[in-house]
Amino acid sequence: MEHPYKTPEADLADERLTAGGFLSGGQPLWKAFWLFFAAGFLLLSVAARQAMVAIVDPLMQEAPGEHAVALTLWGMVGVELVRLAYLCLSLVVVWRCGRNSRWVAARHASRAVLLALILLTLYSIYLVWALLASP
């Protein structure tokens, strides 16, 4: 039996949104964009930079010349691969949560930002690939 004092109009939480998580697209767009995408990527970048300082820098100090450069490059590649994986995950989350906004302009703007970031990421990968392939 339903509670007699709880009317459907008084329920402030949308059950459809609170039932799912970020990856299933069940969260509001502002949470997916600002908390998962922006703040999460910022925290991951800070943690990755600190990992480079804490792990790779001491090893680089002890390694001879060529090995120090190679170690630094592989450390940077590892950090960027982790950041790229999180970027892909957060792009999927924001895309799926994009429909959960009252403002149509916010929905379209979020999708436009995602498409621009995908193009920018692909162009960055192309530039790195071209730089590594050049003699």
UniProtKB/TrEMBL annotation:
Domain of life according to the entry: Bacteria
UniProt KW keywords: Membrane, Transmembrane, Transmembrane helix
Regions that span the bilayer: 32-56, 68-92, 112-132
Name of protein: Uncharacterized protein
Organism classification: Bacteria, Pseudomonadati, Pseudomonadota, Gammaproteobacteria, Pseudomonadales
